């Protein structure tokens, strides 16, 4: 934490260089860039991290992952834990290993993880789980993720819960999965909140409790988690675990659908097709079915084909709506997404 505060202070000082009384001088962005580079070349860790992030994100420069890794490497060699985290982030998030100095990078990341930096431990563990820059090894991945989780990193706690849920690198244990999901959920991790809700909904690792399931879905959905928004919308649309409420269903399904969730798009299409809480609108139904079908969602493709076949016959349309609702309710696409969705996106 102290190193992050020092880094932030350094970057704030750099970001205000060349401005006075809140008014930036001409070419200040260029001047800042040159100032940061000079400081980085002089060995200032904060500046090295800043330059590395510029190359990683393409902020004012052409993205260059090798160049980003090179600056993170320089800072990591000086013992910067944030640099170790950033270097691991390159291997994970970029999805390909920088071609230069790979073995040296892994050694630097390992040393920082061994010194106890939780953020680096989590990423180092995920590198092993996914085989990014190192040989794929579930057991080693679990070791580092657990070390991070035991230090209170909520993202690592969520990842460890997922590993227990599917027995990846650890013995499968629903109860331990629920415990770690709960720790991460209490810390605000939206994926953990979503999956904890799922466990409460089916009584897996915990006693079945629909109220708790809805509570955690709402927590995650309100933070913008598309998976939770979709699940909550389906709870109200299907009407089995809570009283059916088409207005709430439409609200949450639309939010998830607008984030690109194919199942939510299909469910929203069904709502338009049947006029559930909305004006019946075949055209809007087709719009949403097409969006989902474009993502190769099989139920949506079936819906489009059947709509052409029934030719707006009311009885057949009701039968189609019933069949589509059942198909949506019973389809399950979450497990294959969990570990990928737990990849760190920032640091």
Automatic annotation (TrEMBL):
Pfam families: Sel1. Residues 1-22 form the signal peptide. The keyword Endoplasmic reticulum does not apply. Keywords: Signal. This is Sel1 repeat family protein.
